[in-house]
Amino acid sequence: MPYLVCKKCGGYYQLQEGESPDDFYDKCNCGGDLEYRESLGEESPIHRESLGDESSTVELLEEEFLNIKSLEEPLIYDDDTAQADLGTNRNHSTSNLLRISLIIGVIILLIISLGLITTKNDSYGMFNSNENEKYSDEEINTFMESAFSADDYGNSYDKVGKWNINVVRIRIMGSPTPEDLKTLNKAIDDINANVKDFQLKIDDKNQLEADMEIYFVPHSEFSQFSINPSKVDGFTEWKVSISGIYGGNSAGEIFKSRIFIGIDGLSQKRRSHVIIHELAHGLGLHHNHNQNSVVCINGPDLTELSDLDKTMIRILYRKDLQPYMSRSQVETILNNSRRSFF
Question: Of 18, 107, 169, 305, whose CB has the highest number of CB atoms within 10 Å?
């Protein structure tokens, strides 16, 4: 059997059947170079170059052989020890391959998990761009009514009204109840989960003027804002011009909005409905006649945004629907997104 012999320490390892020098690194554990020999008595190429006459060659080989044999006991106790000393390089290679395989596996699992987490946290992740989302006739028709139909006060909405910023900062004014805040926070979470690149954020600590102010005040204070307190339980005003005043028509780009919620003479359920009803107005949606929507005229007192409402908010905040767009422009876009059953 051939051998691998260390030029530095003189240790050696007898190659087993099926093993090749290529299975090992070219270094011993002591740092010395390993040399392949057919037998322990074979001189090394280095020795061959440096040897003189035949007699000196024999003497040097004998000396080298004796050195190797003298180290046999401390270096090679049994086959296992030999494998541990000079065969560990092969084991290290196998171990490294296993480590690399494990690392690749972990990375793949992390990528898959990240995708699942992203999808879970953003339940409408596939609709984030909204350009590929398809809508039913009911969803499109209800949205068109909510975006363009005239309201009870004679306001005509002939242009798309929406925010054109990424984050709308909200400041809460007045005296909301814990249930009021719970309802408001739930609605904000639903909106934020539905619309990409557009978020509502309660920011009471910021000293700058808020984008949206929500007032929880008695009905008697409504008259300070030119609304007859006897007619409504809540209302919303928009500012669609930087230098303009608050008004009742949100057509165009919304720069500021104020929402008013009456806190006297209403049950908590009614107040919860008014909160999400007016919050939908604050985003740019108006009234419709669909009983499944929170902005339905004389509709049920829904206390959470319905699936229909969430879809309408996603439609309104599509990237390709811009403030000031006309009804015909929006119809063209949405007709291309109409769901087909064939």
Answer: 305
| CA 183 centroid distance within chain | 26
Phi, psi torsion values for 87, nearest 5 degrees: -95, 0
Domain spanning 133-335: which superfamily? Collagenase (Catalytic Domain) (3.40.390.10)
Q: Where are the domains of the chain?
A: 3-86, 133-335
| Rg of the chain on CA atoms, in Å | 40
Phi, psi for 319 (deg, rounded to 5): -65, -30
